[in-house]
Write a structure and sequence with these properties.
Layout (H helix, E strand, L loop, with lengths): L2 E7 L3 H12 L4 E5 L12 E5 H6 L12 E6 L2 E3 L6 E3 L3 E6 H14 L3 E4 L2 E7 L5 E8 L2 E12 L27 E11 L11 E3 L4 E5 L5 E8 L3 H14 L5 E12 L8 E2 L2 E3 L17 H18 L6 H30 L3 H9 L6 H4 L10 H16 L5 H22 L8 H15 L8 H6 L3
Parallel strand pairs: 1-2, 1-11, 2-8, 5-13, 11-18
Antiparallel strand pairs: 3-7, 4-7, 5-6, 9-10, 10-11, 12-15, 12-16, 13-14, 14-15, 17-18
Helix pairs in contact: 1-3, 1-5, 5-6, 6-10, 10-11
Length: 463
Amino acid sequence: MEKFDILVAGASTTGAWFAKKMAEAGHSVLVIEKQQAENVSREYDIFHMGKAEMERFGLDIPKEGDDDYGFVFTSGRSYSPYGNYSKYGKETVVGMHKHEFIMKMNRQAEAAGAKIIYGAAFNDFLKDEKGKIIGAKYITDEGEQQVEAKLIADCTGIPSAARRKLPDNAYVENFALSPADIFYVVLYYAKYTDQKINPLDLHGFFMQYKSWSAPSGDDHGAILGIGANYDYAYAEEIFKDVRKNVPWPKYTVEKVEKGMTPYHRTLYSFVEDGFIAMGDTAFLTKPTCGEGCTSSLYQAEIAVEVISKLLKEGKPLTKENMWSINKRYIQVQGKDFDSLRPLLIGIIGYDYKEAEYMFKNDIIFCQKILGGMGQDLNLTGGDIAKMVAGILKGVATGNIRMSNVKKTVKGLMQSGEVGKLYDEYPDSPAGYFAWKAKADALWEKIGKVADTCDPEILRKIGK
């Protein structure tokens, strides 16, 4: 039976990056990927990453002429619900062909020394007589195979093939995501009828619909996207609102792609004895849009540092020894992402007319916030006072409902509660379950972004 330091299940962004970094550090790595090589990451053709984030994690930025290159552009505008007002972004974004980019990452992992087996699906943990994880069982065309490993890294995404096999008393939660915890994404690849239109000029995001327009890389082509909880039918119904409410140039749809991404608060713990959950398996996606390619690498970077050090020192990969991965992630990016979720619930509650008014008057939907999405906002007391004054004026003039103001205030307060709780994350597994009980109670009170979905549309599609 083969033996490795690390077995990675899943060969997309996080799995490939983690495998490469661990191999570069001198550790033996096996990656198993259920898809054959030609089918890896085929759910979408074009996908986007921020250039600064790619540079931050040492990702190879493709150049014109590379098979994974699409285009480079500066991120566009955040639009109001009727498209009358917008705020400008400033991030440089790289558009790439996803399959080609991921396969390049896999080749780089192999060049670093990792072994990759395609057409190999994780089946179960391999355990010793005491129930300790010592490897994995996986299925290929030749039947079940077994391999020993000191650590199993689950990078299988929403299916969470390994995480879901953990026992109920594990420190890593083993629940399955429900349709309310998933973002269903529909991409319409469109060609504008008027060939004078530059898709880059129309690139932008519609927060109220969770919809966007991005270049596709083809002449006069764009990707018109929509994301929603529950299922694709709900997303498609919301997209009808976008096209009805927002003046938009005529286009024809050439193809449609569909895919899913987790849309759930972060796992409370990533580590168990001989196991770590990473990437989409751990729900490490941005709360504003559900994207998780580069945000997952923040956790992976911590994991590489901690796990490599333990292996070099000859220490076992127990949850106690790997616990700092939890604490370091939860208290920084985990806190930033999850504390934003309650506020988003409050903001999304505004109807289209209210949001249009707020865009117009720079209330919450203002340039400082929307133009700096994902960056340190540095809101001053004067900024907040201006927003409060704007909200009060909106209520007084009948343009904003007091009920929605209360939801926003509630969201702000709950955001603070999440931040405070995550600051108190335990230093070791000893205090974990007491902390988890508090977190469960808080998230039960907060609810989910899916709770803001239109009940009439849900009834229409049978949900």
